[in-house]
């Protein structure tokens, strides 16, 4: 298969990250990346080829049918790469429930099953399904593979996965799943390469971006996650609330008279850093602001991260390493420092200079816990899993 082209789609709520990979005898090699920004009108498309960046305004418009968007996108990519060599498309799908434990080739039956999980991931699942269906309509002969964020967490113990609810509800699938699994899989492999001794121990990875979660790993295997049944759970995020007393939901229904769609929109799009600050969902803007509401939002963010990290350390029975990753985790020294300051009782001590430089290792020599900053690469994992599924 050497020389064939794999294309990956990593669908977010308002953007789609695209990866182009060439297959080699040893695996896959990234050629370029691109992004479709659905938040802009007209749709904005950027191609990153080495140091060069190409900015393009698309003529196609976003709707439930993205066939024209995909066709135009591939047309622009064909000006830079031999897209006729494309043999497969790999997709990140956020929710795989208990049905999907690894990458799977997409057919109508699998797509229909993924669609049944849309209510559990309303920000991301619909976008992935639109892309999958658009590719099938445009190039039905292309193989399509789905990689699932939930798959990495399938080995959680029953006590971790179970809510204190009636057994029949658990048996219907109301349980904790965990997300960001593709990112955690990449970090587990990368940490094993960089610091194999630490990777064999108990490590908590903090994936801090617009969506944010924590994962506790033992020897590279997921044992616990801050996210549960949905991608709303755990720590506060850019616009999502994180863990919330269920009584608040009942209050919104009964006392405020809000319907399910209103509450869903509130919890997914109006909470988190945006809701607390009333200023912005972007941590960079909050860090630059002198307003007390901005600091309050950031304080709550780091406070909840430290608290959840402590809980997961209890699941693991100890802690040997912490990894910060994703947009905030990789690039915000103040947030990393505040989280670690709240965890000094665990013997965590960071090197301020290394932290300010976003160095690969930011813990001091006196720290009992190693602290790393490692960039994640979900598209790399999607490409590898796509190749794996094709070979199988």
TrEMBL record:
Residue sites binding Mg(2+) per the record: 10, 378
Active-site residues (renumbered): 149
Cofactor or coenzyme needed: Mg(2+); Mn(2+)
Pathway where it operates: Metabolic intermediate biosynthesis; acetyl-CoA biosynthesis; acetyl-CoA from acetate: step 1/2
Binding site for substrate: 92
This protein's GO CC annotations: cytosol
Keywords: ATP-binding, Cytoplasm, Kinase, Magnesium, Metal-binding, Nucleotide-binding, Transferase
Molecular-function GO term, any one: magnesium ion binding
Site entry (Transition state stabilizer), positions: 180, 240
Pfam families linked: Acetate_kinase (PF00871)
GO BP annotations listed: acetate metabolic process; acetyl-CoA biosynthetic process
Catalytic activity: acetate + ATP = acetyl phosphate + ADP
Presence of the UniProt keyword Protease in the record: no
EC identifiers of the protein: 2.7.2.1
SUPFAM superfamilies: Actin-like ATPase domain
Record note on cofactor: Mg(2+). Can also accept Mn(2+).
Subcellular location: Cytoplasm
Residues that hold ATP according to the record: 17, 207-211, 282-284, 327-331
Superkingdom of origin organism: Bacteria
Known function: Catalyzes the formation of acetyl phosphate from acetate and ATP. Can also catalyze the reverse reaction.
HAMAP family: Acetate_kinase
Family assignment from sequence similarity: Belongs to the acetokinase family.
Subunit structure of this chain's protein: Homodimer.
Protein name: Acetate kinase
Organism: Polymorphum gilvum (strain LMG 25793 / CGMCC 1.9160 / SL003B-26A1)
Gene: ackA
